[in-house]
Amino acid sequence: MVEPIQNLTAYRTLERLARLSWNSTYIGDKVYEPQSIVRLSPTILRKFVCTEGCVSCCLQGPLTLDFIPEERAWHLLPLRYRIHFESRVLLVNGRARQFFSYMKPKGHCPLMSEVRNGSQGCSVWPMNPIECAASARITIQSGGLEGGVRVQKRLFGRAWRYNPPVQCEYPPIENLQDLAEELDKDIAVFHRYLDWGQYFGIHDTAIPWIIDQLEYAKVFGEFRDTTQFPKGILPNAC
Ligand code: SF4
Ligand code: SF4
Asked: In which domain, by residue range, is 61 found?
């Protein structure tokens, strides 16, 4: 079935990929122009803590929980959940691609369990749908005064609307080992984005460069570069 794309969480995932793309990207009848520059924020070097006991973002809806067929998270999802997912389709760069999707109502998620590390939470975490794993961890924003795209670790937009209030925390990281563990979680999210890009045909993005910077920061505690331009364009040419 074909849904209005704005109703699908998968659309937000593809929008994030389009923002990181060096090419024009067509999603449904919308076109996303190629980026001129991608910036990595130092906020990526802090920790994201999903506070135990908080389920604020899991209570939002209606929204879809989405997986692509190749995703490891989909194959790890217990059959008792998978049977409730239906096939949906999105048109990206002229190709229709199918994915597995469940329209979650507001106020409840069937994948929520009574126990996660001793308190209420997601029963399939950290193999939850990609936007559940990514949205409070990584933001990818375009526009603003400086232009281009900014990749940050900060609370998602409109979180102030949520009830009960969100409890995400972003404390500083004190040592290199903790930083490496944290960045590995970010890298895992970006690898999932790469898989989505591969599946939907959004190939030429800044994601490999971002992963490279995060790998560098695991060793040296900082990024080698904080800005990336399209291939063949020198920074001083812009
Ligand atoms: S709002 Fe933040 S702290 Fe609460 S469940 Fe979602 S990610 Fe975790
Ligand atoms: S799948 Fe997990 S993380 Fe996502 S809304 Fe449901 S309980 Fe929350």
From this structure: 5-223
